[in-house]
């Protein structure tokens, strides 16, 4: 079977949001092995994504969805028998500013005068944000505070299973 001789550059990698990062795997074998880079998510289903098919995995525009464990799979075939070896995982941690994932409502919300409206935004951030501001017109309201009939609730943590090991936070406000 193939033998992995190098995987890295490190077992714990930190990549800045929207930048480029590279993972490398070197393996020996006769015949020379084929490569696959697998990304494992930390969801209940433990989803695995194939991220590359070369010895070098280059991610040109790192986003939070790339955060997770990466495993190099080296495979060769001898007399019809497939032989595979997996590397130790590389943990890729993505750091950067908050990135909006989705708005819970449309960009414009129509409500009857005097009625309540609830708005929220879900975003990912690493490190986690310490404050958030809602702005409309000339008004500004920080999360965790009230201004007259307006309330901006605090930042809360949620996990999004479909994206994997990403800490996502929402900041609802009743306006």
TrEMBL record:
Residues 2-91 form the Ig-like domain. This is Ig-like domain-containing protein. It is found in: Membrane. GO terms for cellular component: cell-cell junction; plasma membrane. GO terms for molecular function: cell adhesion molecule binding. It comes from the Eukaryota. SMART domains: IG. The keyword Membrane applies. Transmembrane segments: none annotated. Its main location: membrane. InterPro entries: Cell_adhesion_signaling (IPR051275), Ig-like_dom (IPR007110), Ig_sub (IPR003599). Keywords: Disulfide bond, Glycoprotein, Immunoglobulin domain, Membrane.
